[in-house]
Amino acid sequence: MSDEVSWIEISIQKFGVIIASIVVPFLLHHFKYKREREEMLFVAKKDTYVEYFQEVRGISCCRSAGV
Fold first, then answer.
1. What is the number of alpha carbons within 13 Å of residue 32 lying toward its C-beta?
2. Among 7, 33, 60, 67, which is 20 to 30 Å from 41 by CA?
3. How many whole angstroms separate alpha carbon 34 and alpha carbon 28?
4. Closest Cα partner for 65 from 57, 49, 53?
5. Looking at the predicted structure, is the pLDDT value of residue 63 above 80?
C-alpha cells in the first residue's frame, strides 16, 4: 500500500511540473498574442476614425464658409 501511495504522489508531482513548464507558458503566449492583436486593431480603427472625422470637419468648415 505504501508503494502505491508514493507512486501516486510522484505522478501528481510530475503532472504539476508538466503543467507548470508546458501549459502555463503556452497559455501566457496565447493570451499575449490575443491582447497585442486587439491593441493593433484598436489603433488601426482609431487612426481611421481620426482621419474620417478630420475630413468631415474640413468639409463642414468649407460649407459654413460658403465654398
1. 6
2. 60
3. 10
4. 57
5. no
Separation CA 27–CA 33 (nearest Å):
10
Residues 8, 10, 14, 15: what is their CA dihedral angle, to the nearest 10 degrees?
Answer: 20
CA 47, distance to chain mean position in Å, is 20
3-state secondary structure the chain: CHHHHHHHHHHHHHHHHHHHHHHHHHHHHHHHHHHHHHHHHHHHHHHHHHHHHHHHHHHHHHHHHCC
pLDDT digits (tens, 9 = 90+) for 7-19: 777 788 888 888 8
